[in-house]
Amino acid sequence: MQGQSRRRSDALESRYTFVSSYEPRTVTLNSSWRSSVSLVEETAAVVRERVFAGRYQPGDRLAQEELSAELGLSRTPLREAYRVLAQDGLLDVDPGGTARVAAWDAGRLSEAYEFRQALGTTAVRLACSRLGERTLGELERLAREQRRASGRTYHRLGSAFHCLLLEASGNSHLQRNEPLVRMTEEVFRPRYGLLPEHILAVSAAHAAVVGSLRAGDPDSAELQIRSYISHELQIISQQERPSQ
After folding, report:
1. In the chain, what are the domains?
2. Could you read off the pLDDT of 51-101 as tens digits, one per residue?
3. Measuring CA to CA, which residue among 213, 205, 211, 209 is closest to residue 232?
């Protein structure tokens, strides 16, 4: 059992090491994807990554005719992909089928962070007894690099940190909320500004989370997650209108 947990933990590192060198890529569908994975799922993955990379901005209309032509597929799987992404909260789709990238106001974003507090505190409790040295080291790396980062890289590193905690929990229900974490961290949070004191406070909280997990102290790790979420909620509440 411990061997399985260790292999699971070690596998997490490779999934999140891309972040510090991340560059948006142009992604198109091809026949090999179609033969191995659901076309709807792969179409949703393409649109999802474009939203996270900033290619599609909040409020942008995603024209079915243009995107279906670009990706070389019919509108049926595209409509289904839009439905999947709407369930994830990434798109808003009206009754006529018109899809736009979700544009959350401060109230909706605050609700998402409040929900993320429940996710994060549960994740660290479950992960505490499961984490191996490699995953702890990767969490430390993400926290350390985030402290030195700025702009979109800073938010991607924070997103990867919290997604890795969800993955390390071993709970599939928690892991399904990865799109929510990425949407809040990578798409909406950047619009509320980033000051040096924000970076210091968040990186300190993340480092403290890792220290608590390394010490086998889930109570302390949970407290640090609550501190982080409280800090983010305070920033959002102080700015009724996000900066552009």
Report:
1. 2-20+105-238 (1.20.120.530), 37-101 (1.10.10.10)
2. 998 899 999 999 988 998 998 888 888 999 999 999 888 999 988 888 999
3. 205
Q: Which residues of 4-19 are buried (b: 16+ CB within 10 A; e: fewer)?
A: eebeebeebbeebeeb
pLDDT of res. 97: 81
- Three-state SS string across 48-108, please? HHHHHHCCCCCCCEECHHHHHHHHCCCHHHHHHHHHHHHHHCCEEECCCCCEEECCCCHHH
Q: Which range scores top for mean pLDDT: 2-11, 21-30, 109-118?
A: 109-118
CA angle 34, 94, 57 (to 5 degrees): 70
Which residues, 6 or more positions from 127, have their beta carbon under 8 angstroms from its beta carbon? 165, 168, 169, 170, 213
**Is 8 a residue whose pLDDT tops 80?**
no
> In the predicted model, is pLDDT for residue 26 greater than 80?
no
Q: Rounded distance, CA 224 to CA 205, Å?
A: 6
pLDDT at 142 over 60: yes
Contacts of 13 (CB under 8 A, 6+ apart): 134, 135, 137, 138
Task: Determine contact, residues 50/183, Cβ cutoff 8 Å.
Answer: no
- What is the reported pTM? 0.79
Q: In whole angstroms, what is the distance from residue 113 CA to residue 153 CA?
A: 20
What does the alpha-carbon distance between residue 75 and residue 64 come to, in Å, rounded to a whole number?
7
